[in-house]
Design brief:
Layout (H helix, E strand, L loop, with lengths): L18 H11 L2 H14 L3 E3 L28 H6 L25 H8 L26 H12 L2 H11 L12 H8 L3 H11 L12 H11 L5 H8 L1 H6 L2 H8 L3 H12 L21 E6 L2 E6 L7 E3 L1 H9 L4 H38 L1 H6 L9 H8 L3 H7 L4 E4 L2 E4 L7 E3 L6 E3 H13 L9 H10 L6 H10 L5 H14 L1
Helix pairs in contact: 1-15, 1-18, 5-6, 6-8, 7-8, 9-10, 15-17, 17-18, 20-21
Length: 503
């Protein structure tokens, strides 16, 4: 065989992730609010994209919102060009979605209200302008803790003492505790430590009582002095909070030199104090969860609907494309315009298929967990991503992306889609299994009704759960109990004893 260079032609196949497919996969994992932010960025980059007007949510006569035995889904029919014109282009190439097997609702539950307001059917303002009430305008911005303390400092102090107070107040956390080192603060200001401590003593007299404390014991001490209840016995009780936490009441009575009645009265007094006095002036508000899906009962089953109020509606401005393409342009401009059109069309189709995929996955979840929606968490069944993926003909990774960072609103509250995927506990009879969330619900319910004189141990809980048909080990009960934030039987007995004394 001769040795030398030669040319060979070989044919091979490989799976390549195109940029469009990568974008579609990315969109599946985003929540509705994240989609809104993503689309806002695309609107800035692509001149052919624009937001569409809200679509009326009233059902048509051609079968929209028709009830079926399974969860009710609905979608409007139409050609590709027509749907793209509406901002809901039909996909030419499926992204793991069977178009013939599912339909979906494209409108949000508030669209009907918006349409009624726009048409003059509902007037939300006394003046009859037809505009919605801006509830944020009624919010009274609460004064923060720092401002509240500084107002008191300006009224009580002046000169260098006011400067020291401003320095200390700036280092008080939102719970009301001082997070500064007095020696370092005095050194930084070039002031004697005694003067800094004196200013801190003045701050301790500010409202709310207990602010500026450096420990829980000091915070309770300040409040006890404010209530004129700080006697030697209370001082000893506050100095031994660790024993109080352990429920060592006999030892505490000996240390404080009081009888059982006086000890109960002192504990009741401590319970009335605020361990975090600064929080009452906190201006932080919890961010509400915006659901991506709505599940509501209907006479024919469960209606599943995408929250269209949080989703942008995109349109491809074809008239603008025709106007630009008909004008003079060089090769680079023509290529850029074609790329913008392709990108706009793909984004519209990808968003449309994202909604279809989410509806399809949610429909299977509702079908598998129908007992939960009808009867409650105690009837939640074990469910895995593979079970749902096999049932709807998708890959397990696709189901995982769909259920990430998305929430479902139903009559039983707002739940993350991942909440419905739980491991199972074997049933006592050997047939079937019970969801781990259902077992936790039973444990929580049993402990909630236990009597103070008959605290349930983990072994007792195991016997009671097995009587209900749940074959579970003691260590599993302990793990579930700890995940619920419930203490052991010893801890619960001490807590109930303390509550009984305080009552």
């Amino acid at each position: 065989m001769a040795l030398g260079p030669r040319l060979d032609i070989r044919q091979s196949q490989s799976l390549v992730m195109t940029p469009q497919l990568q974008q579609a996969i990315k969109l599946l994992a985003l929540s509705n609010l994240e989609i809104d932010a993503f689309v806002a960025g695309e609107l800035e980059k692509n001149p052919l994209l624009e937001t569409g007007a809200p679509i009326d949510s009233a059902p048509n006569a051609d079968g929209i919102d028709a009830m079926v035995d399974k969860p009710v889904l609905a979608a409007e029919t139409g050609g590709v060009d027509e749907l793209i014109g509406q901002g809901r282009g039909e996909a030419d190439a499926p992204l793991d979605v069977d178009h013939g097997a599912d339909t979906f609702i494209d409108d949000g539950p508030t669209d009907g209200l918006a349409a009624a307001v726009g048409s003059g059917g509902i007037d939300l303002l006394p003046g009859g302008s037809g505009e919605a009430i801006d509830f944020d305008s009624f919010a009274n911005p609460d004064q923060g803790l720092q401002e509240h303390l500084m107002d008191q400092a300006r009224a009580a102090l002046s000169g260098m003492d006011l400067l020291i107070a401003a320095q200390l107040i700036g280092q008080i956390g939102e719970t009301g505790y001082l997070e500064a080192n007095l020696l370092e603060t005095a050194h930084g200001l070039g002031m004697p430590l005694t003067q800094v401590e004196g200013v801190l003593g003045v701050i301790h007299g500010f409202d709310p009582a207990g602010v500026g404390a450096r420990s829980l014991a000091e915070c309770l001490t300040i409040q006890a002095k404010e209530a004129d209840r700080y006697d030697p016995c209370m001082a000893k009780l506050i100095d031994n909070l660790d024993l109080l936490a352990k429920g060592a009441l006999p030892q505490l009575r000996r240390i404080c030199g009081v009888d059982e009645e006086d000890m109960a009265d002192m504990i009741r007094e401590l319970r009335g104090y605020d361990p975090k006095p600064g929080l009452r002036y906190s201006t932080d508000t919890a961010t509400p969860i915006t659901p991506d899906l709505f599940v509501n009962p209907t006479p024919g089953g469960w209606a599943i609907e995408i929250n269209g109020a949080t989703l942008p509606r995109l349109l491809v401005n074809r008239s603008y494309y025709v106007e630009l393409s008909s004008g003079p342009q060089d090769r680079a401009s023509k290529a850029w315009l074609a790329e913008c059109l392709a990108s706009a069309n793909w984004l519209v189709k990808a968003l449309d298929q994202r909604q279809k995929t989410i509806i399809k996955v949610a429909s299977e979840i509702v079908r598998c967990q129908e007992d939960f929606f009808n009867k409650g968490v105690a009837h939640l069944k074990p469910l895995t991503l593979r079970t749902v993926a096999d049932a709807i003909g998708m890959h397990e990774s696709t189901v995982s992306r769909v259920t990430s960072n998305k929430y479902l609103s139903c009559p039983r509250g707002v739940h993350e889609l991942k909440y419905f995927f739980t491991s199972g506990v074997a049933a006592s009879g050997g047939e079937g299994s019970v969801s781990a969330e259902a077992v936790k619900s039973h444990i929580k319910a049993l402990i909630a009704v236990e009597a103070p004189e008959a605290i349930l141990s983990d072994d007792t809980l195991v016997d009671m759960l097995r009587a209900k048909g749940m074959d579970i080990a003691r260590r599993t009960v302990a793990k579930y109990r700890e995940s619920l934030g419930i203490g052991s039987s010893v801890q619960r007995r001490r807590q109930k004893a303390l509550r009984g004394k305080a009552a």
